[in-house]
Amino acid sequence: MRIVLVGPPGAGKGTQAARLAEKLRVPHISTGDLFRANISRQTELGKLAKSYMDAGNLVPDEVTIGMAKDRMAQPDAAKGFLLDGFPRTVSQAEALDELLRSEDIKLDAVLDFEAPEEEIVRRIAGRRTCRNDSAHVFHVTYSPPEKEGICDVCGGELYQRDDDAEETVRKRLEVYHTQTEPIIDYYRAQGLLVTISALGPVEEITQRALGALKREDAAQ
């Protein structure tokens, strides 16, 4: 299957992308991974992307699309892929459509992971990260440490990262509403959009998404 995942920050899209890719046996292609892989391998696209990033500028769509095209052309993506974090704008969605048409490929579905804005703010703003090891993450409500402000694993100090602060989260959501949310209507008009509730246990959300994909596949 060829699937695009969309959803606001904090909806758990990254977690679900990894789980769905494993269950569907297709590669999980994320924008972040594309950038890191191309930059570390020092590909021409990687060098170009790094030049923009080092200058504090946004990487142009054509560079991101070029990376995505190269990745989707690899053998493990021949039978399908799951795109996470791309496209982010209608212009990128249009460019992706053009790319897929040139390869005689069609998307099967676009999964929109939906969660109330206040729940997203609670999820992100409640995170606390260990200063000693950023892999140790707790939540003041959903997974609090045994001792407030102290990491259960190593005893390090827990703190709130700047990008987890409520004000920052709300700004990120504003950017999402302005730049990315319009692609929901774009894909809805194509009959590809499937809305998935991002509330509940992780496994329950995964099964919800898989069930929706099976229904879409049966309908085609």
Task: Give a written overview of the molecule.
By secondary structure, this protein is α/β, with parallel strands linked by helices. The chain has a domain of about 110 residues: P-loop containing nucleotide triphosphate hydrolases (Rossmann fold, 3-Layer(aba) Sandwich), CATH 3.40.50. Helix content is about 50%, strand content about 15%. It has 9 helices and 8 strands. A 5-stranded parallel beta sheet has the order 2-3-1-4-8, sandwiched between helices. The longest helix has 18 residues. The radius of gyration is 19 Å and the shape is globular. The two termini are about 10 Å apart. The model has no long low-confidence stretch (mean pLDDT about 90).
Helix percentage range = 40-55%
Residue windows where pLDDT falls under 50 for at least 5 positions:
none
In the CATH scheme, the class of the domain at 2-27 and 74-116 and 180-219 would be Alpha Beta
Assign the CATH architecture of the domain at 2-27 and 74-116 and 180-219: 3-Layer(aba) Sandwich
Q: Judging from the principal axes of the Cα atoms, what is the shape?
A: globular
| Backbone structural class | alpha/beta
SSE inventory with pairings:
Elements: E1 2-6, H1 13-24, E2 28-30, H2 31-40, H3 44-54, H4 61-72, E3 81-84, H5 90-102, E4 109-114, H6 117-125, E5 127-130, E6 137-139, E7 158-159, H7 166-180, H8 182-189, E8 193-197, H9 202-219
Parallel strand pairs: 1-3, 1-4, 2-3, 4-8
Antiparallel strand pairs: 5-6, 5-7
Helix pairs in contact: 1-9, 2-3, 2-4, 3-4, 4-5, 6-7
